[in-house]
Write a structure and sequence with these properties.
This protein is an alpha/beta fold and about 325 residues long. The longest helix is centred in the C-terminal third of the chain and has 30 residues. The radius of gyration is 23 Å and the shape is globular. It starts with a helix and ends with a helix. The protein has 12 helices and 11 strands.
Length: about 325
Amino acid sequence: MELIWMIVVAVVIVYLIVSTVLFLFPTIIHRDHGNKVGSLKISAHRGGAGEFIENTMPAFNHSAQLGVDMLEIDVQETKDSVIVISHDNDMYRSTGQKGLISDTLFNDLPPYSNHLFLQFDRVQCVSSQADYSFVKLDDLFEYHKEIVIHIDTKDGKPSLVNSVSELIVKHDRLKNTVWGNMSEAKNDLCYSVNPDITMFMSIRKVIFTYLMFYLGLIGFYPMKESVFDIPMPSSILEQFRDVLSGWQKILVHIAHFLMMNRLLFWHLRRRGIKVVVFVLNKEESFSAAEKYNVDGIMTDFPSRLIKYHNDKKENNGSDVGETSQILGKVEE
């Protein structure tokens, strides 16, 4: 009996040592993703859906001129096999007209509405812009060659995934494109079609990553994806505090505590995996997210996020200047 207990203790000790080593130094057995894409610090969700109508060229141009690091988009395939940028296949929400993009020829697509409610904010975007047309992915790649573009393949059909991959290769965007799908099966399809394109994690993979972390097995867990996209639960409270019940608020707090974990984020960065939170639209949320040392924030209001960063730099500069003046007086 003593021998059995000695073996159990020895196994536990070895497990703890190996688990700790792999947590601290994961690239011993896992490949270093090496930050395959550039900065993802400021990302315009759907092109900046709070400032111009989502997924239109004026929105993309505006965000690019502001200097965002990444444009987040979703893609659909038309009846004549054109890849267009749209969150929904059903056009009613975005255009006011019934029908599916997949059943419509590109030239027959109606324009976007000039007013759309935001999915992650309780406000409506109303925009007087020159162009409300659907945008071809090919055109977005052509007009914005350098900026990182984050693509959700949505229905993830093989024809769509293959076409998106071909466009990425055509425009030489392997190093500044992130793609994937919330479905693990569709994410696997993306990987099988082109493993050289940076991927974000599916919902299932995100859940398993948290599970492995809290079981102490994260160091053993292989990850082919290089971007970890997650919501920040506390931002839900900011938007819907008045409609959530007491129990719902408690659940949101628990989810926030479990999901926003600096140790996990540190480990992922050790692997070269970037952590991006979505979709945050208020300064309080920006500040809260930065406390967890995330690599990027998606927002519907890129102007707000850029202003937040600029104000923070100015304040830090003022603090440094004041400190220097005080030190100078002390030396005198």
